[in-house]
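hi!! sorry for the late reply, been swamped w classes. u asked for the two structures so here they r. pasted raw, havent cleaned anything up. first the sequence of the first protein and right below it the tokens
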Amino acid sequence: MKKILTSFMLCASIVAIQLPLSLQVEAAGVGAEEKPKRKVYLPGPSAGKKVAKAFEAYSADDVDGAIAILNEIDASKDYDKAFVSFFTGQMYAMKGDSIKAIEYLKAAVAPDILNEADHGNSLKLLGDLQMQEKAYNDAVKNYYAWMDFTGKEDGDVWTKIANAYYADKKLDKIIMPADKAIAAYGDKQNQNPYILKVTSFYERKMFKDAVKVLETVVQLFPDKKMFWTQLGQFYALVEDYPKALATLDLAYKQGYLEKESELKLLASLYQQSDIPHTAALLLEKHIGSGEIKRDDNNLASLANAWHASQHIDKAAKYFGELAKMTNEGKHYSKQGSLLKQDEQFKPAIVALNKAIDLGVDNKGSVYMSIGEAHFYLENYKEAYKAFQQAAKDPKTRKYGRVWVNHTKDTAQRKGKSI
């Protein structure tokens, strides 16, 4: 019989239940004070023999056969009933039938007569199975019952309780068991209760509290890149932009920024902090590599960053690419204006005329730029025509007329007809 019990405990020890929400945890308990020894029972000869036979079937990978044998047992004693229910519940759990497993395990723990290890294992397994079945309140009750029975403060179990509250959308209740888990893990810190705390604060829009947790987490888990990126993003949420930039810049230098949204946020923070040249270099690099999509919005950001950093030629280049991509007059207008500023008058005229052809709201300004480009190329006839068009626009009428007269006088002085 001792051999049977030993084998049975081995069976119980290999039953694995996985937490929902992918929160994998490592065992970390704190020893409890010694408590009175629980009375130890042994199954009766008839029940014991059939349980041994069922275990042989299980050992041969015949779980259904084991269950069939157990269901034949007509136990009369309370302990035998509980013991058989315990073993049957484990078999159904192994089979993946959580509903049946819960039914039998409830029957096993109800009389509170199982041996200490079996009773404790049943309570914890019940909680795990109820988590799988989304019976979160029942799961929490059994996790607390397990701690009360064993006298242990276990990090894994506290984390499961916090996770149950998260799954049940009781966000405010997450914090206490998460803190208990952190304390129970002690020096063997586990990231999961911290993740649950951050989630609780974030979903309740308590961003400053989330920041405090993440500030601790990046010190405890400095190699976990997700915490660095989250901390930077939360700094941005609470509008602490200097810390957001410093955190994400450090994360970037460590190779932790991989998502497009993270790279774009860093570039935006550079821009916002009057460091447009660094923003432009970052965007250019990662658009070139494909990590940031080469679309109109991102090209516009890149072009504007180069413009803000006074790299007019590069800004014109990317506005030109943006113009070809979108075929929008406003981008040709911007390209032409920058080319004119960079004294690339001939390509500026091409771009500006394209803007007129496609249609722009600021035609007067575009004609003014066309006129100026022709004027500096000493194409006074074309300049004169462009300034006349600019003079028809109420917004540029005054300056258009001035340039019309100036162009006419200059052409006459140089002996050129208009």
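now the second protein. again sequence first, tokens right under
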Amino acid sequence: MIGTRLKKVADYVKGTTLADIGSDHAYLPIYLMQQHQIEQAVAGEIVEGPFQAAVRNVRSEGLSHKIQVRMGSGLEVIENGEVDCITICGMGGPLISDILLAGRSKLESKPRLILQSNIHSEAVRHALQSLGYQIVAEEIIKEKKHIYEIIVAEEGVMALTEAEMKFGPLLLREQSETFNEKWQKDYQHLTAIFETIKDKPLQQEKKEEIERQLKLYREAIHFAD
């Protein structure tokens, strides 16, 4: 029912109660329940079609007494202190960041957060730092042709550098093959953009920002040959 990406997310789930925000078809909470990793779950979904699919899937698995499917936006589907763990998966980093910041009152009890972003994970790290969370695990995985980042955070204080915000403090330390592939491709893309605008005087500000970003890449990442 679930692929490598969500199984990796499931590995980080702790506690007995889970809220899966943007749950789509509720595959993750159903899987966790069947693996006896959790005892109760909330599957939150804002879109009518996936919400109805989640209701059907939970019912067909005989889990309606264990998994509550709730319709609503972001963290509004739960109360502060209701769950031990929150998962938000399959979205862009800025959207995950917006969900966390808009729902900060639901995070006062500091549940564990497992956040899987498709792009722009830097925004997630900024949000976590401002919300009194620290990153305790990070993973970068490739499924089919897509590269995903998983960020796990718990209550704590952190002060990330610019490079740590962009690349991930733990991922930066490890610099895996998948990490290298992702950022080398990004570096080449930025270099190509720079080449197209370097002789255009009206693009001076953009050129300077790209040059600064490229310097950050070169200083932080040990690119493979």
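hope this helps!! also noticed smth abt the second:
The CA atoms of residues 134 and 156 lie 5 Å apart.
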